[in-house]
């Protein structure tokens, strides 16, 4: 398919091309060749190889993947989160045609988004629920880990975001996100999209993270779920997560707990850094 190194976001297409279904009237003989019983056509390679190759070439040369996405899938605000051919996430507005690599500036009057009540205060979480979430192992581990990385100077916040781009791009290429979904999860994690737009990348990162090793998803009766529902957590508790080794069960996806812990680690480090800078400025010379 001529997919080159660095184009990992297209490997899903190569995987599909490796096991394509046969079209009507096509069959494979004992030599491995393909024969069309209706036309008599004979080819040593799968009849869909050329189609896959052309599609791959189209995706490789497309610098604006929003052209491949039907505009009807956008929410009323028009914004969609996608990724370009270089693997960099970007936002595109189907209403205005605006393309930008930063999170869109929003206000409570944003058309569509504000009307649908997706912009809501992030402090509505009850103290009991908050204490439970802060006690989750994924949260605590991520908070301390990210804080220690930042405090030691191993990485900075910009590098954390950059390192998340590969996974985000790979998933966004196949499953772009409407702004409403990013807003919903961002506020669920405790990010204010108006005051903290630079932290909203953590929200779509939370969507893209796979279930961590050791965790399983179960129905309320304990039956394991192979394909967990992804958006039910905002509305009802229809599934839960369990880690057999840690003997921990929780309603919240552990990868979301991890991202909330990441957010806490970043906030603590930034607050302490700001405090130290103010102390140095106030110190007598």
Automatic annotation (TrEMBL):
Transmembrane segments: none annotated. InterPro entries: WW_dom, WW_dom_sf. SUPFAM superfamilies: WW domain. PROSITE patterns: WW_DOMAIN_2. Residues 73-106 form the WW domain. It comes from the Eukaryota. This is WW domain-containing protein.
């Amino acid at each position: 398919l001529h997919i080159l190194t660095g184009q990992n976001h297209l490997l899903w297409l190569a995987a599909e091309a490796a096991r394509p279904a046969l079209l009507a009237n096509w069959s494979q003989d004992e030599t491995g060749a393909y024969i069309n019983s209706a036309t008599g056509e004979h080819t040593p390679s799968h009849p869909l190889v050329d189609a896959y190759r052309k599609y791959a070439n189209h995706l490789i040369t497309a610098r604006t993947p929003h052209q491949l996405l039907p505009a009807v899938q956008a929410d009323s605000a028009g914004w969609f989160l996608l990724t370009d051919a270089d693997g960099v996430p970007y936002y595109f507005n189907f209403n205005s045609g605006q393309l930008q690599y930063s999170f869109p500036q929003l206000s409570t009057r944003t058309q569509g988004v504000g009307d649908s009540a997706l912009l809501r205060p992030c402090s509505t979480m009850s103290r009991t629920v908050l204490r439970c979430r802060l006690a989750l192992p994924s949260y605590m581990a991520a908070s301390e880990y990210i804080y220690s990385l930042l405090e030691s100077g191993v990485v900075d916040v910009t590098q954390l975001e950059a390192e998340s781009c590969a996974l985000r791009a790979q998933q966004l290429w196949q499953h772009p996100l409407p702004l409403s979904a990013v807003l919903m999860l961002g506020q669920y994690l405790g990010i204010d999209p108006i005051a903290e737009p630079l932290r909203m990348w953590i929200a779509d990162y939370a969507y893209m993270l796979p279930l961590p090793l050791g965790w399983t998803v179960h129905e309320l009766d304990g039956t394991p779920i192979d394909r967990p529902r992804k958006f039910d957590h905002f509305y009802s508790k229809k599934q839960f997560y369990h880690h057999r080794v840690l003997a921990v069960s929780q309603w919240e996806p552990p990868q979301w707990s991890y991202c909330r812990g990441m957010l806490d680690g970043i906030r603590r480090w930034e607050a302490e850094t700001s405090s130290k800078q103010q102390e140095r400025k106030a110190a007598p010379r």
